[in-house]
Write a structure and sequence with these properties.
Elements (H helix, E strand, L loop, with lengths): L2 H9 L29 E6 L14 E5 L1 E7 H6 L1 E3 L7 E6 L1 H5 L9 E4 L5 E3 H4 E6 L4 H5 L6 E5 L12 E5 L8 E7 L5 E7 L3 E3 L4 E9 H6 L10 E8 L5 E8 L4 E5 L14 E12 L2 E14 L3 E11 L2 E8 L3 E12 L5 E13 L3 E6 L2 H5 L8 E9 L4 E6 L3 E2 L3
Parallel strand pairs: 13-19
Antiparallel strand pairs: 1-23, 2-12, 3-11, 4-10, 5-9, 5-11, 6-7, 6-10, 8-9, 12-14, 14-17, 15-16, 15-18, 16-17, 18-19, 20-21, 21-24, 22-23, 22-25, 25-26, 25-27
């Protein structure tokens, strides 16, 4: 394998994360992602400070949403469906689903009316800033709704949004069981649903949590944020596997947030797919007076089984070869990667190079991490050199497994 091909392969690997406690070997056998060579490979290359972002700790992941979406039938639309929104300018998208989409069910702006809490029945042109066919609207294309209609709530409705909500009604004759996707993007709202996870990746054997909260600019400005235990909130949290399998996730209410919990060992091993993302889906509804705030949100996470981990043992065989112990739970090709540093004139650590060695391991054993002295000697940096971090990577299944964040000095 050439260094270029090797770098391309390792660039595909996921985000790094902190070392975890010892775990029992997996009972099943995870599939290999690619045809894997069993030949050893060793590379060392110089890096710049700008190239070492991956050295930092797992930054976690955060998402926000001013959207929600519903699946509704033509029968429901004929009766009228509420459109909770908190600000004028909300973008509403309606499109047929399933067979209705395949059968090319068509409608236009004359097919709908907006009923207001004041008893008005407005055409879409009267109730909106603009009406656009979905296949002509770039915003709709980005949300993968396809054919349908899009409109933006007009400023003349701003005073009625919190007074029982607007009602969208379909006036055309359509089979009552025809399914539609209704998507609302409350784009000018001051209310955002937020979700945050401390890590990007978790082991299926470990429990983890995700924080959820409604960021309300008005409430923050007034300094009167009510505790979640006292608010009229309905929330559904769902953990969705790459194959579409869904399972409920519990949550509890705190003073300043809602916390979704996935308990240890509650994930079906058959749903694990190395290298593929899971999602936490949040359906949030909060009632305030006569109004309602609705938001949906999806937060991506990697959840997998641990196939190996560093056992913590390291020993220099010679000046440039570090014997690194690895506990193997499933056979595969594993890489040990060292981030090498030197100290500048002010004795501050500076990134210098990355050394990487990979080998096929059938059972627990050692990987000999080899540092190329020619690369170090060819740099402008002077010793002494030291390793600031060791990472373990499963090349067979494309995933980082473990990290040893401690200083290991190269022998003089």
């Amino acid at each position: 394998m050439t260094p270029r091909k090797y770098l391309i392969l390792t660039a595909l690997l996921g985000a790094s994360f902190s070392a975890a406690a010892q775990v029992a070997p997996s009972a099943g056998m995870l599939p290999l992602s690619l045809p894997i060579s069993k030949d050893n490979a060793d590379f060392t290359w110089l890096v710049k400070a700008a190239d070492t972002a991956a050295v930092s700790a797992d930054p976690g992941v955060s998402v926000s949403s001013q959207r929600y979406w519903l699946t509704v039938s033509a029968g429901e639309l004929n009766k009228g469906v509420q459109l909770p929104a908190t600000a004028a300018g909300a973008v509403i998208q309606v499109a047929p689903l399933g067979r209705a989409r395949d059968d090319k069910v068509r409608f236009d702006e004359q097919s709908f009316i907006i009923n207001t809490p004041r008893g008005q029945s407005l055409s879409l042109s009267q109730a909106s800033r603009a009406v656009i066919a979905a296949d002509e609207n770039e915003l709709v294309k980005q949300t993968y709704i396809g054919r349908g209609i899009t409109f933006q709530l007009g400023d003349n409705l701003a005073g009625q949004l919190h007074n029982g909500g607007l009602i969208l009604q379909l006036t055309d004759r359509v089979a009552v069981d025809t399914q539609f996707l209704l998507h609302v993007y409350d784009r000018e709202s001051r209310e955002k649903l937020m979700a945050s996870s401390a890590q990007r990746q978790y082991w299926s054997s470990d429990g983890f949590s995700v924080d959820v909260w409604l960021q309300s600019a008005d409430a923050q400005k007034q300094g009167a944020i009510q505790a979640y235990s006292d608010r009229d909130i309905d929330m559904i949290a769902t953990l969705v596997a790459p194959d579409g399998h869904r399972q409920d996730a519990g949550f509890y209410r705190g003073d300043d947030k809602l916390t979704v919990q996935v308990k240890p060992n509650t994930i079906d091993p058959q749903t694990l797919r190395p290298g593929q993302l899971w999602e936490i889906h949040i359906d949030y509804r909060e009632r305030r007076g006569d109004g309602e705030i609705r938001r949906n949100l999806r937060l991506p996470l990697a959840i997998t089984e641990r196939t190996a981990q560093l056992d913590g043992s390291t020993r220099w065989q010679d000046k440039y070869t570090l014997q690194t112990g690895v506990s193997i739970y499933q056979p595969g090709r594993y890489e040990v990667r060292a981030h090498l540093y030197h100290k500048d004139a002010e004795h501050r650590p500076q990134p210098l190079a990355i050394a990487s060695s990979a080998a096929w391991l059938q059972s627990s054993g050692d990987i000999l991490l080899k540092v190329d002295p020619k690369v170090l000697n060819g740099s402008a940096a002077n010793g002494p050199y030291f390793i600031g971090k060791l990472e373990l990577i499963d090349q067979s299944r494309l995933g980082k497994l473990d990290v040893l964040a401690e200083t290991i000095a190269l022998p003089n």
